[in-house]
Amino acid sequence: MTWIDVPAGTRFGIDNLPYGVFSRAGHGPRLGVAIGDHILDLAPVLDDGVFAQPALNALMSRGRRVWRETRARIVDLLTDATRRPRVQPHLVDASTATLHRPFVVSDYVDFYSSLEHARNLGEILRPGSEPLLPNWRHMPVAYHGRSGTVVPSGTGITRPCGQSLVDGQVSFGPSRRLDIEAEVGFVVGAPSQRGEPVPTSAFADHVFGVVLVNDWSARDLQAWEYQPLGPFLAKSFATSISNWVVPLDALDAARLDGRSQDPAPLPYLARATPWAFDLTLEIELDGTIISRPPFRNLYWTPDQQLAHMTANGACVRTGDLFASGTVSGELRDERGSLIELTWNGRDPLRLPDGTERSFLEDGDTVTLRATAPSATGGQLALGDVTGNVLPARCGSDG
Amino acid sequence: MTWIDVPAGTRFGIDNLPYGVFSRAGHGPRLGVAIGDHILDLAPVLDDGVFAQPALNALMSRGRRVWRETRARIVDLLTDATRRPRVQPHLVDASTATLHRPFVVSDYVDFYSSLEHARNLGEILRPGSEPLLPNWRHMPVAYHGRSGTVVPSGTGITRPCGQSLVDGQVSFGPSRRLDIEAEVGFVVGAPSQRGEPVPTSAFADHVFGVVLVNDWSARDLQAWEYQPLGPFLAKSFATSISNWVVPLDALDAARLDGRSQDPAPLPYLARATPWAFDLTLEIELDGTIISRPPFRNLYWTPDQQLAHMTANGACVRTGDLFASGTVSGELRDERGSLIELTWNGRDPLRLPDGTERSFLEDGDTVTLRATAPSATGGQLALGDVTGNVLPARCGSDG
Q1: pLDDT tens digits, residue range B215-235?
Q2: CB B237 within 8 Å of CB B151
Q3: How far apart are the C-alpha atoms of A243 and A386, rounded to whole Å?
Q4: Which residues contact A274 (CB under 8 A, 6 or more apart)?
């Protein structure tokens, strides 16, 4: 039990302690952990310059032993009531703080690891043929995204402009099919060496924590540009991540065996320990929950993703972000993108105000949330990720 | 004329002055410019801490005005003989120095902008159908590569392991079709703002300089993995760049009008000024020149690439690298990759030692070079990029 007065049912309790970067009047950005409605200012209480930095990268680069020691020290500070006089002055009311992007993103990789999502997309985009491409059950398919446009929760998302093919004509203008993708992202702390693949058993030695990801996608741009090199401008305008990074250790009680796989994965992809997570996502559009994608069923688990990403000798670096790809479940209200929820616009969503949505409209606000069982038998949450759609600015070509 | 004794016919003369990062016994990595057989140690002669850094990024971030002033100061130091007593002590014999990766790569984007290359690949991979995909003449197609595995010239290239489909069976092992791609890369110095596309007319405000790029590619891995999200592990094990970054201004005499384009590009891709370059590349395999790809014919010029990359509001950052894609000409001995030179192995290359090559063998050394007309009527060179193929280390799965 913490000596801090945390709200009943908080999802940022003592068993969570996510890290972020915050600032307040008179102080530059620095590291904090969320506890209830407060942020613990780490630099003064832990007396280490790494906590006074404006990004988690330096802390994350120190490796798992330091991550665990740091977490234990923070738990001690917040549970041992004799620490209170020293710690209390450094608890910041979260409502008075500004949150920032928690880490500098090195490489950003986006997987495509939900079977239900891949199957839905196949059925929508290639009707009448086998929805899963031949490689899908053999490897966690992925692509590199743009790390320079990964933005923190709360950043406005300007509708992108770009080329699309409309009635056989190539035109340039605002995307008409702006979509979301609800994903879970894994943040690399400790780097690996080039030439040394990271086995599935070493997942926790490298992964520092977990964020929620909204991989905004312009479906019309994507359809026209993606052959043969994959999505590019359809995704690169913005990818939102939560401001809080939940440490991997906080998710211990949420760990599950991964879903069974057929065919059995090749040896380098064989799982060593359970790295599926019992996370339930939630997509809110303009105040209405439109979906609750279950992360527990992800076909390719993140330990397999990391092993695959490095199987060719590629190294990972501190700050690398790899995301699950859209998380979708079997049911309609478990789908993680609008293209699936509305079946490419065939079945628009009806919102309580009577309006319909096939894709996002200007002014729409999308918030992703995720909860998981916590070590104390309750629930903890990942950081929310929210974004508001702003009108396109295409200039004279629009 | 410089007062330094430069070798006759040097391609690193006073009209070139490429920037790099070098170290020597007793000194850490810092910035230098190449002149003849020497490297000018910039920190002591220019008296600014930015030159004592181990990467070009901070200098590059200062913008075009500073780049031009710095270049003018260096030219002055190396041409005004009265400077000699002060400068001479800081000229380092290049043979005593170690060269390093010249800048920290932010995002790495690889285009696909050579018409001849795209057509060759289409004919090889999709025989009997239209070789160019429908989008190709409408936009410079591209994908994001892995920035964390961009390595400097001279780095050994371990043959990657990965999945491929052989006789209908999925297997994991060393790539059997390791290839090169001869490319020219553009290095972003001054960043742009998210939401503000960079018009073709602003190319020189953002691009600091030019490198040679070898985008090593495992064709067998690529064929199996690339649907539908594009190349991933087939490329991400290593991308080599030259140690020297040639300033854009050094290439003024090499600038040409871009090749005519049909259909006319959309307005946001219309060229404002000539940004094609009269560069001739050279591919040397184990001591034999096997190709001389002409860069001057590139279909999509780099100003168009930058405008396209940012048309959706994506920003560029200091250290972003965008490469042309494989440069190929009309003729067989102008092709920029082995898959084209050997027509996917059908027509192996015969080397002077009597051996044949369809793709790279362990122990092979590939060196790319490029020359261009210089301001003084001679030739200047980009930095070479070389790499030696090391045997795969696939572990127990190999």
Answers
A1: 999 999 999 999 999 999 999
A2: no
A3: 10
A4: A255, A256, A257, A258
- Domain co-membership, B77 together with B185: no
| A143 and A120 housed in the same domain | yes
For chain B, what is the mean pLDDT? 97
Say whether residue A228 is in contact with chain B using an 8 A CB cutoff: yes
> Which phi and psi (to 5°) does residue A311 adopt?
-65, -25
The model's pTM is 0.97
- Decide if B18 contacts B35 (C-beta within 8 A): no
CB A84 within 8 Å of CB A76: no
Looking up residue B329, the CATH number of its domain turns out to be 3.90.850.10
CB B340 within 8 A of CB B117: yes
Q: ipTM of this complex > 0.85?
A: yes
In this structure, the answer to whether residues B121 and B209 fall within a common structural domain is yes
In a domain? residue A171: yes
The number of helices, as runs of H, and strands, as runs of E, in chain B is 10, 27
Which tens digit of pLDDT belongs to each residue from A255-305?
999 999 999 999 999 999 999 999 999 999 999 999 999 999 999 999 999
The active-site residue out of A38, A100, A117, A308 is: A117
Domain that holds residue A96: 19-100
Is the pLDDT reported for residue B247 higher than 50? yes
Same domain, A67 and A86: yes
Residues A337, A189, single domain; the answer is: yes
| Percentage above 70 pLDDT, chain A | 99
Q: Are residues A249 and A359 in the same domain?
A: yes
Cβ contact, residue pair A226, B226, below 8 Å: no
Say how many CA atoms lie within 13 Å of A39 toward its Cβ: 23
- A340-380 pLDDT tens trace: 999 999 999 999 999 999 999 999 999 999 999 998 889 99
- Residue located via tokens 């002591």: B44
Whether B295 maps to a domain, the answer reads: yes
Cα–Cα distance, A124 to A111 (Å, whole number): 19
B146, with CB counted inside 10 A (0-12, 13-18, 19+), is buried
Active site residues of B: 117
> Quick check: helix, strand or coil at residue B205?
helix
Q: CA-to-CA distance for B331 and B117, rounded, in angstroms? A: 11
Instruction: Name the residue among B194, B231, B232 with its Cβ closest to that of A149.
Output: B194
**Which residue out of B104, B109, B144 would a mutagenesis test of the A interface target, given it has the greatest number of A Cβ atoms within 10 Å?**
B144
Return the SS3 of B348.
coil
Q: What is the CATH number of the domain that holds B87?
A: 2.30.30.230
- Which candidate from B225, B234, B313 shows the least CB-CB separation from A158? B313
Pairwise CB contact (< 8 Å): B197 & A233: no
pLDDT-derived band at A1 (thresholds 50, 70, 90) equals: confident
Phi, psi of B169 (to 5 degrees): -105, 135
